[in-house]
Each structure stands twice: as structure tokens, then as C-alpha cells.
């Protein structure tokens, strides 16, 4: 539990990657093996992972992200978050932070295995396992859903996904450009209640 807890408390979003950092296939396989040990609705295991290494495909995905950011995404995020988080996101999208990741893993749900209503609860736990396993191996990751929620059809076309596979997240993976500090989190007790909402823990 100590080692697991340490990884869980250290894992955080990375939005700037070392473009020369290597991620061997063996490490990707270890990460994916952890991912598929997540729970899913009725053990349907509907996850689909497309590991994108091609510079051309990664650039195309990054261009979609840039288009969404400049078409209103930036204003939406600025209205909801603080300056530091906004600047980090803007750097990731507009100044090459995400584009420098050597790998993008698009995570989807096979809707022939699970009803769409159960897709999030069946796919996002696998994505979380992916993030934790990558952190345990020393990699940086950033899970994003804007790309797959705003550009479902372009992502499907780019990756040759059938209509039965719903893209749900894109995970950027690579060696961090710099050492990542611990994530900022409010204490759990600030959002935990006893018996009913607003009753102090």
C-alpha cells in the first residue's frame, strides 16, 4: 500500500515533454497490462487503445487541439480556472507542449461490447490505471477529453476507427521535459460528508 499510495499521490498532468525521450514498446505493454486490469461494467472490457507514434498523425491530432482551443476552448477554460493552470494548458496546446509528446494513446470504447451509457465507467478506470502505471515507470502523462469530445469524427477518420468505437480520451505519454512536482489537491475531508451533504466528516 505504501508504494501504491506514493505513486497515486505523485501522479499529475504533464504538459511539456522531452521530444527526444524514448518510450520502448515493452514499457507501453507493461502500462497497457495495468490498464486492462481495471474494472468494467459486467466485465465487458470494452477498452480500445490506439498507440500513435507517427509524427504525421500526432501533428494532425495536435492541430485539432489547437483548432478547438482557438475556437473558444481557451475562453471557456480561462473562465473556469486560475492563471497558472490556464497558462500551463495554453503552453501545452499553443506552444508545442503536447505536440512534443512522442506518443499519443487514444482510448476508446467498443460499443459492441458495452452500451454507450456504461462506456465512461468502463473506460476511464482503465485510463486511470494507465496513468498510474506510467507514473510508476517514471513517465509523464496528460489525459485529455477535449480532443475526443469535440472532434469525434475527425479522430475516427484519422485513426481508421469503426463507428462502433467511440473515442473517449487522448493520453499524451513521454519523458517529462522537467521533473514534476507533487500535484496540488484540497484535503479529502473538504469534500467528504457524514451521512448527508454538508454534515461535517
From TrEMBL:
Pfam families: Nitroreductase. Keywords: Flavoprotein, FMN, Oxidoreductase. Residues 179-201 are annotated as: Disordered. Residues 192-201 have a biased composition (Basic and acidic residues). Its cofactor is FMN. The keyword Mitochondrion does not apply. InterPro entries: Nitroreductase (IPR029479), Nitroreductase-like (IPR000415). Coiled coil: none annotated. The keyword NADP does not apply. Residues 11-174 form the Nitroreductase domain. Belongs to the nitroreductase family. This is Nitroreductase. It comes from Pseudonocardia parietis.
